[in-house]
Amino acid sequence: MPPTPRPDPGPPVPAADPFHEERRDDCPWCGSRWLRTRLRVPERPRPTPGTFVVDECRDCSHAFRNPRPTGDAPLLRPHRRPAEEYGGSDLAGRLRRLHHRTAARAMLPYPEPESWLDVGTGHGHFPEVAREVHPYTAFDGVDPTPRVEAARAAGRIEEAYQGLLADPEITARLRARYDVVSMVHHLEHTADPRAELRAARTVLRPGGHLLVDVAAPARPFGTLPPGLRWPGRAYDRPRPLHLIPLRNLLAELRSLGYEVVATRICAPFPPRAHRIVARRTELPPAPVAPPPDPQPRSDSA
Q1: Which residues are within 8 A (CB) of 79 and not within 5 positions of it... i.e. 6 or more apart?
Q2: Which of 95, 117, 126, 134 is a plausible cystine mate for 178, CB 3.0–4.6 Å?
Q3: In what order do the strands lie in the sheet with 204-215?
Q4: What angle do CA 210, 110, 186 make, to 5 degrees?
Q5: Between residues 96 and 141, which one has the greater pLDDT?
Q6: pTM for the whole structure
Q7: Residues 193 and 200 sit within 8 Å (Cβ to Cβ)
Q8: Angstrom distances, CA of residue 246 to CA of 60, 100, 203, 216
Q9: Nearest Cα to 278, choosing from 87, 151, 110, 165?
Q10: Measured between alpha carbons, how far is 262 from 232 in angstroms, rounded to an integer?
Q11: 199 closest CA partner among 117, 137, 108
């Protein structure tokens, strides 16, 4: 039997860019349309086409990737460096472990936590190091990739949650459960940093602490693609979607009901970042509108 004839597909239709969303003309932080291009370079040496562009808002100084990569872009760009090399003897591994240890030690001045959630935990390397500083703390992890399950199987965390912390199902499940929530170089890689900060407050117990390490916008070479920063090291490093000025981040934390108790400049790998410790406080009650004035009665003659 001859094969069933198929219709002619016609000329190929130009497809949408599978790696990038539409370019936006306003700031994702304040909504201003007064933008300038801070950096524009080809995305070499990756096999994916396109240009790496970082725009900056002239009003609030928020810098962001524009256009932003799609959710499928990380899956289409294979990571060429095995994650397990983290614990090796190379300089990058030693510096990263040192940074994780100093981040964990930042919580020593506060009450010892019983439960700790690491957001964006990946393979769980930060909880693994933090347990050396806080041996009586139970560490859990949340990450949008299946790596979080590998972290649980390796014993680096006790409970694993695959997804974003801002997902309503995860937030509702973990409500008021943790004494500490950490975001170590996670916030700048999320599509909506504000949503992650709101969700962190939800899963914290009253009086719990939020630990944030976030890339500083003015850090040297902070926005360059990895191939230009580290010649010869062409593996795919995660690159920030947002570079949030410290004053913007502190103002956002206070508006969400956090008390900022410590800030400092730290020197992790890659260099130059801000470390913030904030305590969850009770939000002030919403103002109550005064009752309307009663209508004056007219006295009849």
Answers
A1: 235, 236
A2: 117
A3: 160-162, 138-143, 115-119, 178-184, 204-215, 273-280, 258-266
A4: 25
A5: 141
A6: 0.79
A7: no
A8: 11, 21, 23, 7
A9: 110
A10: 38
A11: 117
pLDDT averaged over every residue in the chain: 80
Are 181 and 117 spatial neighbours (Cβ–Cβ below 8 Å)?
A: yes
Kindly indicate the confidence band of residue 186, based on its pLDDT and cuts at 50, 70 and 90: very high
Phi first, then psi: what are they for 235, rounded to 5°? -70, 160
pLDDT in tens, 146-175: 999 999 999 999 999 999 999 999 999 999
Would you list the DSSP string of 163-180?
A: S-TTSHHHHHHTTT-EEE
Distance in angstroms (rounded) separating the CA atoms of residues 237 and 226 = 6
The residue type found at 259 is E
- CA–CA separation, 210 and 207 (whole Å): 10
Residue with the larger pLDDT of the pair 77 and 257: 257
